[in-house]
Protein 1
Amino acid sequence: MKSNLVVIFVVELVLLYLIAMITYYIFTLMRKIKINDRLDKYTIKKNEKETPIFEEIFEFGHDIVKGISKILYKSKFLDKYSLRYQKYIKKEDKNKIDKMDFVSKKFLIAIFFIIVVILYDVFHFQDVLFIQIIIALLFGFYTLDLLMISTNKILEKKKHNDLLRAITIMNNSFKSGHSIMQSIKLVSDELDSELGLEFKKMYVDLTYGLSLDATFKRFESRVEMDEVKYITTSLKILNETGGDIVKVFESVEKTFFNNKKLDDELNNLTAASKMLYSVLLCIPVLFVLVIYFLDNTYFMPLFSNVVGYIVVIISIMLYITYIIVVKKVMKVGDKL
C-alpha cells in the first residue's frame, strides 16, 4: 500500500510539472500575441504566413524532447543504448534529429501509459498494482521500437523493389541506345519515390560537370545498399573499359531477379515457423493479461513477499532466455 502511495505521489508531481510547463507555454504564447498585436499598429505588414498553433505545439514538444536528451546523455549506458537508433536517422535529418531523441520519446510514451493506468485506477477507486505499472512501462517503452521496426521493414522492401524497377528501366534504356546519363535521367523521371530523388541528384551532379566516379561515390554514400555498390561498380568498369553495356546489364538484371525470387521463396518457407514463433511469444503475455483482467488480485501473492518476487524474476529470466534461443534458431533457419 505504501509503494502505491509513493507511485501516486510521483505521478502527481509529474502531472503538476507538465501542467505548469503547459500553462507557462500558453502564457508566453499569449504574451507574444499581445505584443505582436501592439506592434502591428505601428509596423508595415508583409505578406507572411502566420505559424499555425499545431506547429507551435510541435515545436514545444520538440524542445521538451531535446531537453530530456541533454539530461540522458549524462548516462553512458543510455548513450550506448541510443546507438541502435542511429540507423533510423536519414542523412539530411542528422542536424534536426539526434539518436538520443528516440530514447527520450520512449521514456515520454512510457510515462504517458503509466499515467493513463494510474488515472484509470484512481477514477475507478481501485488500488494501483505494481504489475500494472510494470506492464504499462514495458508496453509504452517498446511501442516506438515496434513502430520503427515495422516502418523500416516496409521502407526497405519498397527501396529494394524501386531499385529492381530502376535496373529494368536502365536495361531497357541501354537496349534503346541511350547513354548512362540519359538512362539515369529516365529513371529519375519514372521513379516517384525516395530512390527516384537520389537518381535526380545523380543527374544534377552529372549536368554540373561532376565525373561519373565521383557521382557514383556520392550516390553510394547516400543510399547505403550493397546492390547499389554492385551496380555502380559495373557502370564504372563499363565506362572505363567500354564493354558491351547491354549484355552486362542484362546479367545484372537477371541476377537481381533471381535473388528476389530466392528471397521470396525463403520467406514463404519460413513464414509458418515465424508465425509459430510469434504465437508462442505472445501466448504467455496474453495468458497473464487474461487472468489479470478476470481477477486482478490473482497475482497479488507474488508481490506480497520475497519468495513471490524471486518467482517473478525467475519467470521473466526464463521467458527472455526462451526468446533468445528461439530467435537464434530462426536466424540459422533463415541463413539456410
Protein 2
Amino acid sequence: MRPRVLLTNDDGVNSVGLWAAHDALTPIADVTVVAPATQQSAVGRSISIFEPLRVDEITHHGVQAYAVAGKPTDAVIIGLFALKIEPDLIVSGINIGENLSFESIMTSGTVGAALEGANQGVPGIAVSLQVEDQGDKFGDPRQSAQSFSGAASVTRDCCERVFRHGFPAGTHVINVNVPARPTGGYACTRLAKKLFSTGVERRLVPRGRPYYWIDGPLIDDAETGTDVHAIREGRVSVTPLTLDCTAPGAAPAIADLFRD
C-alpha cells in the first residue's frame, strides 16, 4: 500500500507552496490536503476552542481539498479526528519564508501544525523555503516570486527517505529549511538562538496617537552547526525536533532551588 500523507500549511489552502508540495508527493503517496482557509502565519500552535470550526470541501485545479476556517493546528485536528484520514506522515509546507532558530519555531504555524500531528501520534515534516526579499512573506501566497521547484524536490526526497527507512527514533518533527539559492547538500543542524534582531518601530497616526510595528532585520549568521548557519552557507538545514520541552540539564539546580 502507498503511504498516506496529510498535507497542511499556514499560508492558506491556495498557497503556491502547498500545491508545489502536493504535486511533488502525489507520485509517491496518497495525499490529502487539509489546510487553513486563509493566511495564518505566525500563529504557532494556537487552537480554536472558543468558536466552532467550519470546513469547506473545495477543488483546486481538479484536486479535492479541505479548507478549514481556523488555524494550522485546527486543520490537523480536523483532518485526524473529523475526516478520519489516518495518515502515516504529516507534511506541513512548503512555507513561504524560512523557519529557523528557537524564536521562529515557537511562533511558526508551519512547525506548529507538524508538532500538533506529532502530539496526536503522527510524525511530521515541516518544510520552509528561504525568501530573499522579506516582503514576499506578506504578499499574496497564491502568487510568489520564489521558485518552489527545488524545495518541492527536497520535500519529496525527505519523505521518500522516511518511507524507506522509517522516522528517526527520538524525533517528533523534522524541520527542513531550503535556501533560496542552494549551493550544497543537507546539513543536520541544531536550532540557533535567534533569527531576527527584534525591535519595535513607533509611528504616529494623523491625530498624533502612537502605534507600533514589531520588526527587526535578520541576523547575519550564527554558530557553526546551527540551522541559521547552514542556510547562510546555502545548505538545506534538517533539524530534529521533539515535543519534550523539559530541560534535564537544569534538574539539579531546580532541585536545589526548591529543596525544603
Protein 3
Amino acid sequence: MQKKKPSVCIIGLGYVGLPLAVQSALKGYQVYGLDNDSEKIKKINSGKSPIQEEFLEINLPKVNIHATTNAKVIRQCDVSIVCVPTPVDEKKIPDLSPVRGAVESIIKNFRKGQLVIIESTINPGVCEEVVEPLFAAAGYKVNTDYYLAHCPERINPGDSKWNVTNINRVVGASDKKGLQMAADFYENIVDGQIMQMSSIREAEAVKIVENSFRDINIAFVNELAKSFDKLGIDVVEVIKGAATKPFSFMAHWPSCGVGGHCIPVDPYYLIERAKLSGFDHEFMKIARKVNLSMPDYTIELLQDTLNEIKMPLNGTTVGVLGLSYKANVSDLRESPVKELLKLLKKNKAKALVFDPFVLEKSTVKSLSELFKKSDAILLATDHNEFKKIKPNDLKKYGVKVVIDGKNCLDKAAIKKAGLVYKGIGR
C-alpha cells in the first residue's frame, strides 16, 4: 500500500505561497492555505488566481486547495510552511513581524511532530534566534516536539521557463531527521535538484547572497551608465561586447531603478544582522546607495534633455510607460516607478501613466491617449507591448523627447524620426 502523503499548510498565499500550494496539490498533497486577506481567499476557493501568473491561471482551477483565514487548520497538518513577506521599513530596517506572527499562529495551533519550514527570505540566524525561542517560550523543544527547516523561496514572476515546478532548491534544518523530512517533501514536488545544506544558518544565507550578488552587479553597471554618459559611450554596446567573452563575465543591465521584493530588500537583512555581530558591509551599502539613486538620475536626465530643446520640466506633460517593477507582470512591490512619479510631482511636471497589466492604477486608457497628451515619454517598465512602439506613432502625436529607462527601444530609429532619445548610459 502506498504511504499517504502528509497534509500541508501554506501560511501566506502571495507570489511565493500560492504557487507552492498549487504545486503541492498537483503532486497529491492535501493542501490548506492560510491568509488574512478574505477577498483573496474567496478567489482561490472559487478557482480564480488573485495573481496574474500563467502557472496559477492554468493550474489553480485543477486542484482543491482549502484556503481560509482560520489558523486552526494548522492542527490538521503534518507540515507548515511560512511564506509571508519580509519587508524593510522606511529606514531600511528589516521587519520580521510577519514571520513572528506566522510562527505564533503555528504555536497556538501546535501539532506534535510537525515539520515547520520557513520559506520567507530571512537573514542568517533567524531560525535559531527568533523562531526557536518562540517555540521554546511555549514549552516546545526543537527536534523533539517539532522539526525546523529553511528552504529559501525561488520565484521569478512572469518567467515562462523557470517556476515553482523546476527551479533547484536548497534546504537546511535543525537536525538530520528534519533535514531529510524537508528534502523528501521538496523532492516530491520539484523537478529540479534539492541540495541539502550542512546547517540551517547556511541555508538562510543562500538567498541573501543570491540577491545581493545581483544588486551589486546591477549597481556596477548603473554606475558605468552614469560614467559612460559623460564619456559619450553607449553602455549597452559595451556590455554586449563584454558578454561575447565565454567565461568570467555575466551581463547585467542598467535601468531607471531596481524593484521587486527581493533585490531592493534582501541586502538590508544581511547588512543589519552583520552589524549586530560587529561587521560593516560597506560594499553592499554602496551598491544599495547607487541603485537607490537611479530614479533621481533618470529625472535629471529627463530635465537636461528637455532643456536641450528649451523646454522646462515644470509644467511639461510626461507620459510614464509602466507601473510594475518588471516586464509583463502586475507586481508593484518596491517598483521604482513610485519614486519616479514622486520626483515628477516634486518638479511640478504633469505625469500621466499607462500600464496594460495595472489598468486600475493607470491614468489613461491606452497608449495612443498617453502619446496624444504627452510632450515627453519616460519608459519605466519594459513590457512587450512597449517594445513594439514605433517612432512614427510618437512623432505623429507630437511627442518630442523619449527617455528609455530600460534601454529597450530602438535608439537609432527614434533619433532618425527626429525625436530626442536618451537611455540610461546611452
Protein 4
Amino acid sequence: MAASRFAELALQPVGATPPVFTASPVAAGTAGSIDLMELDKRVRSGGSWYYWVAALSLVNSVMAFTGGGGGFVIGLSVTQFLDVMLAEAGGNAKVIALVLGVVAAGAFATFGVFACKRHSWAFIVGMVLYAFDTLLTVLAQHWLGLAFHAWVLVSLFLGLRASMQANAMAKAG
C-alpha cells in the first residue's frame, strides 16, 4: 500500500491542526485492555521458569551422582536433599537419587510445557510443589536459595495471572 493511504503519514498543510492520537491500551497500562500477544509473552516468561528449575535440578542431580561438588540454587531443594541423603547410603542409592532427580525434572518440564500453553492448572500445581520445596529451603537455612525460590514463585504467579487474563480475553472473543 502507498504511504499516502495512511492518515498518520499524510502531509498536513502549514498551520493545520495535526491529528490527535490516543495512547494504545498497552501503553495506557490498563489491565483489562492489554493485548493478547503481550499476555502470551508474559505467560511464556512465567512458564519458562519451569524449564530452568527442571534443567538446573537435573544438572544438580547429575553432579551429585558423578561426585562433582556445588549446585544451582534455583534447582529443587528436595532433589539436592535426596542426593545428599542417598549418596551417604552408598550402593544403588545414588542411582535411585538420580532417577528421582530425573523424574522431578521431567515433572517440572511438563509443567513448563502446559503452562506456556496457558493451562492455569500447570501454574498452580507447579507453584504449590515449588512452594513446598521453598519450605525445605527455609528448613535448610539456605538464604540465597530462598531468595531465588521467592523470585521464581513471583515470576510463576505473574505468568499465572497473565494466563488467566489471556484465557478470559480469548473466551470473551
